[in-house]
Amino acid sequence: MSSNQEQNVVRLPAERLYAAEIEALKSVDKDSKPAGWQLSPKAVLTFITGGKAGDVTITPKYIGNRRLVEMAIATLLTDRALLLIGEPGTAKSWLSENLTAAIHGDSSKVIQGTAGTSEEQIRYSWNYAMLLAQGPSEQAIIKSPIYRAMETGGIARFEEISRCASEVQDALISILSEKTISVPELGSEVSAARGFSVIATANTRDRGVNDMSAALKRRFNIIVLPAPSDLDTEVDIVCKRVAEISASYELKASLPDDEAVRKVVTIFRELRSGMTMDGKEKVKPTSGVISTAEAISLLTGSMALAGSFGSGTISDEDIAAGLQGAIVKDEEKDKLVWKEYLENVMKKRGSTWRSLYNVCSELNG
Q1: pLDDT digits (tens, 9 = 90+) for 33-89
Q2: Is residue 236's pLDDT more than 80?
Q3: Which of 321, 270, 332 shows the shortest CA–CA distance to 297?
């Protein structure tokens, strides 16, 4: 894809978005590389957590516990698959994509888990026109992302695995155990090339919908990604991602200032935890999850409002509109929760919060 074409793409995959950083790391990476890897484990860690590669600054892709990233990379050095678990918005998919981009330079082999995901999407299916015309053949096979990753020694990503039916999930057991996919119609099988692995993600909020079997869990090393541990960390994550997304979409507004970001993150953290930041007052939680990802979406949406219909600087009116949509998902319950929070918490915070409180109260009616 040419540079002009890339400029017209809404979202580039990580290996193209950060191509310059990956090339810089390759040029200075003197450590040994596992079979099929383009970077050494230490260089992959630098790509994910940030650092320097010669004169090139490597931006952090994941802001959080460095040890968790080291454990994830170490898992991919073995024959174990990796399962990233966490609340919505804990950067599971983002970490999965960037790990794959750094290790193999191709993060596109993805299965999106849904209630409708079938076993064929995990293994293989057929081009039925060719199947009817000439019978089973290598050319008639439609290879799944996992099949293609096994052939090339790459990494396949399985997003939201817990959303799939249990019998579909269990189709992975033999693949992860035997590292082969049999094709009985052809009397053959494909064996995984060295470097093959699977990175799966699952939301803790999906637990109970389709519980993963113990047999499947045993094939994974499981890493739980926590929500940002403190206000400053979450503010840093939100600021970084808002800047990246707004640049990609060329939003005609200035980035939100630190005070605006802190207000949004404070509100989200308090409604998530059920307690004010000072620990002095309980807060009723909302019906839905208001995650870090939602805070990022809220602020980029506020920038779009300010750039298209305002002064180009985010106002309290822009933020309030986003807060209303992010928090009030269940009209009956959440509207009351939000009103109670406004009156019992935000209203008491003094003059710096007064304008935002007034606009939010007016919108919540």
Answers
A1: 999 999 999 999 999 999 999 999 999 999 989 999 999 999 999 989 999 999 888
A2: yes
A3: 321
Q: Half-sphere exposure of residue 362, counting CA atoms within 13 Å on the CB side? A: 10
From the CB of residue 237, how many other CB atoms can be counted at a distance below 10 Å?
22
Q: Give the span between the Cα atoms of 252 and 270, in whole angstroms.
A: 31
Backbone angles phi, psi at 135, to 5 degrees: 80, 180
Q: Which long-range contacts (CB under 8 A, 24 or more apart) does 15-23 make?
A: 15/101, 15/105, 15/106, 15/107, 18/47, 18/59, 18/61, 18/98, 18/101, 20/56, 21/47, 21/53, 21/56, 21/58, 21/59, 22/47, 22/101, 22/102, 22/105
What pLDDT was estimated at residue 227?
87
The conformational region for residue 54 under phi > 0 = left, psi -120 to 50 = alpha, else beta, is left
What is the C-alpha end-to-end distance of the chain, expressed in Å?
50
Tell me the CA distances in angstroms from 250 to 2, 210, 245, one per residue in order.
19, 40, 8
- Characterize the bridge pairing of strands 124-126 and 180-183: unpaired
Burial classification of residue 139, based on how many CB atoms lie within 10 Å of its CB (0-12 exposed, 13-18 middle, 19 or more buried): exposed
- The predicted model gives 350-363 an average pLDDT of 94
CA distance 80 to 345: 47
Question: For the whole prediction, is pTM greater than 0.90?
Answer: no
- With tokens 């802001």, the residue in question is 63
Sequence-distant (6+) residues with CB within 8 A of 19 are: none
